[in-house]
């Protein structure tokens, strides 16, 4: 989509567009020339304002709904407003304190923490809060244990840095004695705690190629167990959503058919997860206005997201979904600050290893 640049508009046009959008975001009503004349502070005639508005309409930045004499911003106009015409400020001190107070880095697992994040975002913005749940293998391993089962099977107990516990049952070619299982667990815990499963597997294979035959024999049990235990699994991605019913209170989303499509998208999650994964691949804040998301169910909505992660690694994205008529200058800092507080919490948990 081609986007107009702010320098394509003269100073008066930019000021009028900013005034019109601010007024529209505040009350949701079309804005007329008389209101713009009073609110913009420009010393120009009503006829000049009408001419500038006509130019903005020709540029696709504003539109006249129905037969109203007033105008509303288009998604294209909102995009220009967000990109060029507003000045974002840091989150107010009291709201930052609320985030830090309500998202503590205590002994909780990551999924519970992310559930709190989506609920808090919904509460702070009165929109739907969303957050992607990273794959468990994206977190460092804290501890591993092996328990012998009948028929050459082994129960693998994996404890990750986010306090999540995952159990896997693996099948070996031949049974191993409890002493061998304990020795293998001790070796893996001593050498590889703090690394991710993919990294551990790569380290073991490299060491095995480079090691002497005597060390190979000592490592053989650990390598066999690790190869089976750390094999890639269908660790399904997920996205948590809170506060969907908040959206029922906005007139622009109150159409029953629109709400049905939107709530179906929240329930099925497939399209929403795809969108959030796109956001996670581009570090920082992302914003989709209306049809920019590419998903019909979100055409009347704006999606604001920011990435979060730990130790320099992006794990996912947090954000909100609301009507296109939202206070972007407030919502964007809320989402950005939430991602930062969440990342800090995960980093503190990771350094506790």
UniProtKB/TrEMBL annotation:
Name of the encoding gene: hrcA
Keywords assigned: Repressor, Stress response, Transcription, Transcription regulation
Family affiliation: Belongs to the HrcA family.
Gene3D superfamilies referenced in this protein's UniProt entry, alphabetically: 3.30.450.40, Heat-inducible transcription repressor hrca homolog, domain 3, Winged helix-like DNA-binding domain superfamily/Winged helix DNA-binding domain
A GO MF term: DNA binding
HAMAP family, alphabetized: HrcA
GO biological process: negative regulation of DNA-templated transcription
Protein name stated in the entry: Heat-inducible transcription repressor HrcA
